[in-house]
Design a protein that fits this description.
The chain is α+β, with helices and mostly antiparallel strands and 291 residues long. The protein has 2 domains: 3-55 and 155-287, no CATH class; 59-149, 2-Layer Sandwich (Alpha-Beta Plaits). 73% of the residues lie in helices and 8% in strands. The protein has helices at 3-19, 21-57, 71-79, 92-99, 107-114, 132-140, 151-194, 196-204, 209-249, 258-287, and strands at residues 60-65, 84-90, 121-126, 145-149.
């Protein structure tokens, strides 16, 4: 296609969009929403994947000891267990010493903690973290152990909410994809009906039906591209403003790749463009043939 032909298609698409600005804008907004949700879900999946990997790699657990029981004696017993790699006793005083910097200028709050019944804790690092759940259940049943906490418990909670986000997010995404497809279909249909006489004249004068259809396909593609391009840019802003600082603060947990983000942005723009193209193709498939 030469330069003049491309300029003509651009002008024709712009005029078609302006004629049906409401429908075209609604279609672009729906495509934007669908593509933004898909990008946001991918970012959440990347973050959750890194977080889950970090939590699964942790082998430490904490045992909270009944104040009426000698925590040092329990720690001594655990040292001799084959599944234990290391044991560290954390008393109430040690915990408060660690918390003291957070109470600078608020000494009354620190005093309230000092007067509370905070139990001693025993931190265990295991030899084989794959058995952590079974070991936690066994240790939790021991007399004198009031509670057992380990990272995988939090990982299970993270996994549950991650599944919930994906489930409802995918449902919303599918709904928006269907709606955006329908809106582009309607917008192109309106353009076809408004220009039906012009289309007939052009076909009678020998214009190639594929070329005539191509102009409307281009219009649908342009609607999809604009909506998805804005979505890709917003996803990038979300990544830079929220996830990138998180990675900088916790580099040992999160490992985002800019190349993956750029590829995702390209995929978002491509996906939205294909929605617009497919909807416009479906809209023009019969109308131009019977014009």
């Amino acid at each position: 296609m030469n330069k003049q032909g491309l300029l003509y298609m651009l002008r024709d698409a712009r005029e078609g969009i302006v004629r049906n600005l409401g429908a075209a804008a609604a279609a672009a907004v729906l495509i934007f929403a669908a593509m933004f949700i898909s990008g946001a879900l991918l970012l959440v999946r990347f973050g959750m994947g890194d977080l889950m990997g970090y939590l699964e790699s942790q082998v430490a657990m904490k045992l909270y000891v009944d104040p009426a029981v000698d925590s040092k004696a329990i720690a001594t017993i655990l040292v001799g267990k084959s599944f234990v790699k290391s044991v560290e006793l954390e008393t109430k005083e040690q915990l408060l010493d660690r918390l003291a910097p957070f109470f600078a200028g608020r000494g009354h709050l620190l005093i309230s903690f000092q007067e509370s019944d905070i139990p001693d804790a025993i931190r265990l690092e295991l030899v084989d973290h794959s058995q952590i759940r079974l070991i936690a259940e066994e240790l939790g049943a021991l007399q004198g152990i009031t509670k057992v906490v380990y990272p995988q418990q939090f990982a299970q909670t993270v996994l549950y909410w991650s599944k919930q986000i994906n489930q409802y997010g995918i449902f919303s995404l599918i709904s928006l994809l269907v709606l955006s497809f329908g809106m582009v279909f309607i917008a192109i249909n309106l353009a076809l009906y408004q220009r039906q006489k012009e289309i007939r004249v052009r076909l009678l004068l020998g214009a190639n039906p594929l070329h005539v259809r191509g102009q409307f396909l281009f219009e649908g593609w342009l609607i999809g591209f604009i909506g998805s391009l804005v979505a890709a840019l917003v996803v990038y802003v979300l990544f830079v403003s929220a996830l990138l600082p998180l990675q900088q603060q916790f580099p040992f947990i999160f490992h985002f790749s800019m190349n993956v983000v750029y590829e995702m942005m390209g995929g978002i723009a491509l996906g939205g463009s294909l929605i617009g193209l497919a909807a416009s193709y479906a809209s023009t498939r019969k109308l131009i043939d019977h014009a």
